[in-house]
Write a structure and sequence with these properties.
Length: 253
Amino acid sequence: MLIDVYTIVLLFFVGLIAGYVSIIVALKLPLKKKEYINVCDNCNHKYKWYELIPLFSFLMNRGVCPYCKTKLSIGYFILNFISGLLFSFAYIFYGFSYEMIVVILLTLLAVMIYVSDFKYYVILDEALIFFSLLILLFKAIFFGFKTFLISLCSGLLIFVFMLIIRFIGNKAFKQDSLGGGDIKLSMFFGFVLGVRLSIISLVIGSFLAFPIAVYYSLSKIDKEIPFGPFLMTGLFLVFVFMEPIKSFLSIIF
Ligand SMILES: [Zn+2]
């Protein structure tokens, strides 16, 4: 497979722009505001075009709004940079392929979930529907109708499975054990990975969130844990290391 340096660089910049748009959508959509990309949340000042360039504008303004000097989180800068990197890596590792497309789509959805779940404790339905449709569409294009149908059923099965887990959890702990957003996100896992690997990625995601849960309870922080980012990281890991995980599973079962 021939890897072209220009494509790597181009994809990095495409990733920066797409990641930037994803961050903005995840920040603004839950607020249901009319003004979208080009307005400061704090002072409502309209940004000029050069104040909206990914990474560059952040550095130029030293991480604050140029009008009201409100600090912008460095987290967004890092997320944006990573989205560029992951677009390039997707191409370096997979070339132009189904896997490359999935890594790119997962990157964008992960960016949105990191932003919206940490900031507002929501996973946007619009984002889940959009990316689910895209994943299913690419399954149909690359693997045909049968795979599309299997993926669709896998997602629905995981959805029902998680509803049952929530029902049991609610009865056992007498409180809401799983957020609705997390259950809908699990359905997306089913579309991407099928039933077996989805369950593994959900388990890995829960393990990743575990240290935070321990930290919160030890330091008596009475805050909800945004579960979505951890689940999404689990999904990412399982997708990237799918082959070793599959061979490991075939040894055990
Ligand atoms: Zn401002």
